[in-house]
Amino acid sequence: MTLTPAELTSAVSGGIGTSPQRPDGNLKVRGEFAYASDLWHEDMIWGATLRSPHPYARITSVDITEALKVPGVYAVLTADDVPGRNLYGLEHKDQPVLAVDVVRYQGEPIALVGADHPETALRAMKKIVVTYEVLEPVVDMETAVDDTPLHPGGNLVRHVPIRRGSQDVTAEVVVTGRYEVGMQDQAFLGPESGLAVPASDGSVDLYIATQWLHVDRDQIAAALGLPQEQVRLTLSGVGGAFGGREDLSMQVHACLLALHTGKPVKMVYNREESFYGHVHRHPAVLYYEHGADHTGKLVYVRTRMYLDGGAYASSTPAVVANAATLGVGPYEVDNVTVDAYGVYTNNPPCGAMRGFGAVQAGFAYESQMDKLAEALGMSPVDVRVRNAMTEGSVMPTGQVVDSAAPVAQLLKLVQDKPLPAGTSSDIRELPGGVSNTTHGEGVVRRVGYAVGIKNICFSEGYDDYSTARVRVSMVNGSLSAAVHTAACEVGQGLVTIMQQIVRTELGIERVTVLPMDTTIGNGGSTSASRQTYVTGGAVKAACALVRDKLAGRTDIGDEVIDETTEWRHRATEAIDPVTGQGNAHVQYGFAAHRAVVDVDVDLGLVRVVALDCAQDVGKALNPQAVVGQIQGGSAQGLGLAVMEEIQTSGGKVRNPSFTDYLIPTVLDMPPMSIDVLELADPHAPYGIRGVGEPPTISSTPAIVAAIRAATGLALTRVPVRPEHLTGT
Amino acid sequence: MTTSRRQFFGQAAAVSAGVALSAPAVEALAAEPAPAGLVDVVFEVNGERQKLRLDPRVTLLDALREQLGLVGTKKGCDRGQCGACTVHVDDRRVLSCLTLTATLQGKEVTTIEGIADGDDLHPVQRAFIDHDGFQCGFCTSGQIMSAVKVVEEREVRTDDQIREAMSGNICRCGAYPNILEAIKQAKAGDR
Hints:
The structure holds two protein chains of two kinds.
Chain A: E1 8-11, H1 25-30, E2 45-51, E3 57-63, H2 65-68, E4 73-77, E5 102-103, E6 109-115, H3 118-126, E7 129-134, E8 156-164, E9 173-181, E10 193-198, E11 204-208, H4 213-224, E12 231-235, H5 251-261, E13 265-268, H6 271-277, E14 280-281, E15 284-292, E16 298-308, H7 316-325, E17 335-343, E18 350-351, H8 358-376, H9 380-387, H10 407-415, E19 443-456, E20 465-475, E21 478-485, H11 494-506, E22 510-513, H12 531-550, E23 561-568, E24 587-600, E25 605-616, H13 623-642, E26 648-649, E27 652-653, E28 674-677, H14 694-711, E29 717-718, H15 722-726
Parallel strand pairs in A: 2-13, 9-29, 11-12, 14-18, 16-17, 21-22, 25-28
Antiparallel strand pairs in A: 1-22, 2-6, 3-5, 3-7, 4-6, 8-17, 9-15, 10-11, 10-13, 15-16, 19-24, 20-21, 20-23, 24-25, 26-27
Chain B: E1 15-16, E2 19-20, E3 39-45, E4 48-54, H1 60-67, E5 86-89, E6 92-95, E7 108-110, H2 123-130, H3 140-152, H4 159-165, H5 176-190
Parallel strand pairs in B: 3-7
Antiparallel strand pairs in B: 1-2, 3-4, 5-6, 5-7
Helix pairs in contact in B: 2-5, 3-5
């Protein structure tokens, strides 16, 4: 088997609007789909990473002498061995490939070992002597800006202010709150892995599980001091991503070791190292004040929010902008004051995770809407509908929402769904399950609602595009198409969607998806719910070029039609740095949830009984995949609501394992009734609206609202744990 | 590209106290006793007899992936917390990351590579495709190996019982509703 992934060919009917089988499905159910951790090269050696045990320390010396003497060791590398720029980052180049003089988070890479076996590498790592002067870490996001500066420019990564309407208007009914969101982890099941193969001309091939091949390549090339064309990336099988593979992990490390030793180098993180090896969702502290009139109409929203970016910036600037611009939720509010701060601390670095800033704000503004409903004596749905945004509404940024925004309709859809049957006496259907903690005594069932808003695609003037190549030739007497992009399939089903688009555009059933790599132009990131929109748009555009050349022919003989094109969505604008005004976003997506929750109020155990959702997707190109995204996003929102948190103490991670970092199992995931609206967005290919993230936003606050209703507790922090419900 | 993924790691995994064993061809394990620190194990994997000489610390998961080239069984956590490495040993589902290969003398092991009949998928594999019971697919080998046994377990009947029986297999993509439907389809066909 080669390192290059399989071409995926399907010859079935199934254009857009249908749900054909995934072209990688057969391989995946047979265990034959090659994930990055399955890669193997007969000459390869293994790379390992020495990481800092301290969240903040000065490095006074690194001695690799003894490590180099371990039999089987090919190389031990430190910052001195980085030939190019030893700083990288998605937005700010502030993160060292290997630490120099200082470490700013626990787990920061300091040295690399290449050895004949993973255990040899581990033994050698233990012989590297690093001496530290341990420093007092900065861990409080609210005071970080005034604390010890961790970077030359201080600890403020970005402040996004938004000023709209009156800044001093008053209201009849005012509710305030302080909310906290814990640090969630993507916890993709396939740990980081990659294999770098050096070439004799000094260039390198990297086979890697990532979300964005080209931005990886550019950062790797800069660090290696190589021209971009001498760094070639191919996507290997990706075991989930959810934002956690948007930043580099071992990409540069594996290439450094490969070029230094002349050997292919494989690196695989174990689960504990994975917790240190990728960025997490920003924990946040959010202060809100909502003012409304006696009818429930919002008069103003004021918020100050802090997002903890940890030691390096990663995508913090964009996360802060999302939290700010989406900070009042899918509601019409004339008077808005937002100050959102992203800061550096010595906590683990945080960046992209599904929902990207909108999740943190969503928990807070939806908690506020429930509080407002209570203060007004209104129902939670009524107060939301009273303020619901519609097409034509104006965002706090001044941007007009110029396609469907069916917020009230989504809320009513979930409200009108039948409720599940009453509390059971079967212990499997009760909180605690077969732990047999109750037979129904102490169990209270309540309902909670939430709705959320998410921007789709990249924002703030970013030149967001994708490149697609479609090639058509005759195979066995029939037209056959191949589609090639650098857009990363991470499990969402982009490979299926691309085939469907080709079938619809060209009427060709047999479609091959070629491996994704950097031999073609940039596909953009698999994030911001954007690939079906942008790469889908590029494939559609390339098909149009092919269709012109086909000119209706069904037999083209020996001719090969091969067209490549770039496609970009409509431009966005930067926001004003003082007022936050500007057409920052391409598109908005909306979802609403109703959660039904049983709470054992004596023991603090929660069982989500039902989690129903309604979402507008513009056009469901693949209805089955759309429902899968809604289920998956809702499950991750459920995790944040009641169990998932990387707990830190003094900057140190206390629970880097699946024993202590809990993820929803099938027992935690309730049945979902899902309504999918298809209100076409005239600006988007086929009218689609990005699907993956909106359901992650509203599921968390809906569940917490139900737990609040069951317990009468304020519950201003997620995840809600049993001790928060019992006061123990 | 001169690369392959075949019988992986002759050179390693079988490492003891710092001594890397140079690739022992399986058939070369003769009658002579294993050197100090190593053990010989003879067992069946997917119907084929395998003889391995290895460090007693080597888990079944590592032996499958690194010595037998069966990488369909996945390492999600290596601590028995995720279920991605589920295989069958003598017809019971076990976590291969918590099973020492040295304990498998004379046992029969079945992995994800061993359940289809040539091109014909096992009904549970078929059901996972029909119901889109996965996204990234990394947990799928383990889900299917668990599900094959759940389908056979007659005392598991209701949705809640299936959930309980599948609760050791995490799916981070959250395909649980579809996994449940897939198992119900396979169970219906099994009756």
